[in-house]
UniProtKB/TrEMBL annotation:
Gene: MPP4
Protein name per Swiss-Prot or TrEMBL: MAGUK p55 subfamily member 4
Domain L27: 20-75, 76-133
Domain SH3: 238-308
Annotated PDZ domain residues: 150-231
Pfam families listed in its UniProt record: Guanylate_kin, L27, PDZ, SH3_1
Residue ranges of coiled coil: 566-617
Record keywords: Coiled coil, Repeat, SH3 domain
């Protein structure tokens, strides 16, 4: 009943608003009032509409529209075509009159450069003083002559924003494409498919496209084209698409690009706005980090895939070339691990007590007794050990790296987490020893009621002092394997005959509690974690320069060598730098943010603010993570 009353009210209001005197702003005001009622009920899509209608730009635009509508019928005739001269006269007269503040202000206004420019523009329009003058059309055009268009563009130090090609069969010179936002497109007079007849008075018949370009390059001021217009000018009705570049592209290194200067270089992880996909081979796009710049050409999905394949096959046969050096490093690490393992085997007692002593570090404030899970040494050592296996797996054709090769662009959308949505998983990635665990621990300690790690799973027996679900979830080998094979493990490995790993469900348990789950993952786990249910935000922790690292890590210890808390050697730092570079090269497209861990306090502060932004501000995420309006 209440509902139907409201509908009646709305339709009354609508009737009222159809009165032209109320204008569109009035309609908008009424609509907003009505939406307010629905907004609190969180009806799908309404938030979006609400934000849109509230946006100041739309309201301003509608006001402009109202004004234009109001004056549309009126015909404006300039009162004078000499406004500028008149203003000068007034200024002279004012000079002789009294020096009251009002007169001084008026003089200042009339002498202001902007006002003078405005009057000057007014006079130009009033005098109909338009330039350049187009040559008159010849009178004796035969009836059978193809309709021609004469296009005159003022160069103004900008590129034309169009490419030309020769028709394979007829040999005609055609406009191949018109770049969005460029000079040609803004003129609205040149279209892809137009046939060039003359350029600057020179016939293009029999000329190569390069010769035509040379004529254009030599011209100063204006460029004149005589064209036979294409019968069906292409209409770009495609919706704007946003993609994340999963690979890099350098037009200067691509001899196949139609026009090198028109190419848009991009790096892995750049978000691109694709404005035109009409051409099967070359799309038009711009970087969202640089929307002010002109649109450029990028290879289409299909073309870039082909280029990647050609590049891949053109490489000499070296299985997993791109991972080779990383694996070598891991083998060295694995050797280290063997040394560690030997130590452990030599003294099982010590191993037990080391595990126990580790607990102390995992309580935040002894009074509060808040346990921070996920920092046990066994799982960290296990991750180190499985590092090699994971890298080997990632060299398999279905790995993230290869699939990135198969999908050069990933469609993305802007995702704004609503207060009622679960938090996004925060994942820290970085080379071993860079400080991933230190930062993670410090973040959780800032507010353990807000940030939490996931409790890992293990198949090793529970110890007397441990609590199931606190240090680990203790499960049977069978349960663990089930989780592995059903892809419910973000990462896992074997250490001293037992499995260790972090499950999706353990992460979800933290998120379900309304907390922010903070994990560290080997980069090979990135693809597994990238699901709509976790919506992970990846932060790459990067080492600073060697000199800074030597200074800041003077007293730091490499934790994984837990029998001897070893100080960082120069080789450790070099290895870290090298590994960080490799991680960025291979996985940089997935990193949402990069933090250089130089000064620990600064890095912690940056981490905290980044995590807050990841949860509260809109971010680009794969389109598959956000249900479309019809699905939701
Ligand atoms: N910015 C920093 N300045 C000084 N010391 C740091 C800084 N960041 C981390 N450390 C120290 O460096 C050592 C290694 O850090 P951490 O254990 O967090 O490494 P990690 O990235 O987790 O690597 P791993 O997984 O191999 O343990 C620790 O002693 C830590 O306190």
């Amino acid at each position: 009943m209440i509902q139907s009353n409201k509908c009646a009210e709305l339709s009354n209001k609508n009737r009222m608003s159809t009165n032209p005197q109320n204008g569109l702003s009035q309609i908008l005001r009424l609509l907003l009032q009505e939406l307010n009622l629905f907004y609190s009920r969180d009806v799908n899509g309404l938030c979006l509409l609400y934000d849109l209608l509230h946006s100041p730009w739309l309201q301003a635009l509608l006001k402009v529209y109202d004004c234009l509508q109001e004056f549309k019928e009126k015909k404006f005739i300039p009162a004078t075509s000499q406004a500028k001269a008149l203003s000068c006269e007034v200024v002279d007269l004012l000079r002789e009159s009294s020096h009251s503040p009002e007169i001084q202000e008026l003089r200042q206004i009339l002498q202001g450069p902007h006002f003078k420019a405005l009057l000057s523009a007014h006079d130009t329009v009033a005098q109909k003083d338009f330039e350049p003058l187009l040559p008159p059309l010849p009178d004796n055009i035969p009836e059978s002559e193809e309709a021609m268009r004469i296009v005159c563009l003022v160069k103004n130090q900008q590129p034309l924003g169009a490419t030309i090609k020769r028709h394979e069969v007829t040999g005609d010179i055609l406009v191949a494409r018109v770049i969005h936002g460029g000079l040609a497109e803004r003129s609205g007079l040149l279209y892809a498919g137009d046939k060039l007849v003359e350029v600057n008075g020179v016939s293009v018949e029999g000329l190569d496209p390069e010769q035509v370009i040379h004529i254009l390059a030599m011209s100063r001021g204006t460029m004149m084209f005589k064209v036979v217009p294409v019968s069906d000018p292409p209409v770009n009705s495609q919706k704007m698409v946003y993609v994340r570049a999963m690979t890099e592209y350098w037009p200067q290194e691509d001899p196949t690009i139609p026009c090198m200067d028109a190419g848009l270089p991009f790096q892995k992880g750049d978000i691109l706005e694709i404005v035109d996909q009409n051409d099967a081979l070359w799309w038009q796009a711009r970087k969202i980090s640089d929307l002010g710049t002109c649109v450029g050409l990028i290879p289409s999905n299909h073309l870039l895939k082909r280029k990647q394949r050609e590049f891949w096959w053109s490489q000499p046969y070296q299985p997993h070339t791109h991972l080779k050096s990383t694996i070598t490093i891991s083998m060295e690490e694995d050797d280290d691990m063997k040394i560690d393992e030997k130590c452990v085997e030599a003294d099982e007692e010590t191993f037990e007590s080391e595990e126990l002593s580790g607990d102390k570090e995992e309580f935040v404030g002894y009074d509060q007794k808040v346990f921070i899970a996920g920092f046990r040494r066994s799982i960290r050592l296990c991750r180190r050990k499985t590092h090699l296996n994971q890298l080997c797996n990632s060299a398999h054709p279905t790995s993230s790296c290869y699939s990135a090769l198969g999908a050069p662009y990933e469609e993305v959308v802007r995702y704004q987490r609503r207060p009622s949505d679960k938090h996004r998983l925060v994942v820290l990635v970085g080379p071993s020893g860079v400080g991933v665990n230190e930062l993670r621990r410090q973040l959780i300690e800032v507010d353990p009621s807000r940030f939490q790690s996931a409790v890992p799973h293990t198949t090793r027996p529970q110890k007397s002092y441990e609590v199931n679900g606190r240090e680990y979830h203790y499960v049977t080998k069978e349960t663990f394997e089930n989780l592995m094979y059903s892809h419910r493990m973000l990462e896992y490995g074997e250490y001293r005959g037992h499995f260790y790993g972090t499950s999706v469900d353990a992460v979800k348990a933290v998120l379900d509690e309304g907390k922010i789950c903070v994990l560290d993952l080997e980069p090979q786990g990135i693809q597994v974690a990238r699901t709509h249910e976790l919506k992970p935000y990846f932060i790459f922790i990067k080492p600073s320069s060697m000199n800074c690292m030597k200074r800041s890590r003077k007293d730091a210890k490499i934790i994984t060598h837990y029998f001897v808390d070893m100080k960082f050697k120069d080789e450790d730092l070099e290895e870290m730098e090298d590994l960080a570079q490799k991680m960025e090269t291979q996985f940089g497209q997935f990193f949402d943010h990069v933090i250089v861990n130089d000064n620990l306090q600064d890095a912690c502060a940056q981490l905290l603010s980044t995590v807050q932004k990841a949860q509260e501000e809109p971010q680009w995420v794969p389109v598959t993570w956000v249900p479309s309006e019809t699905e939701s």
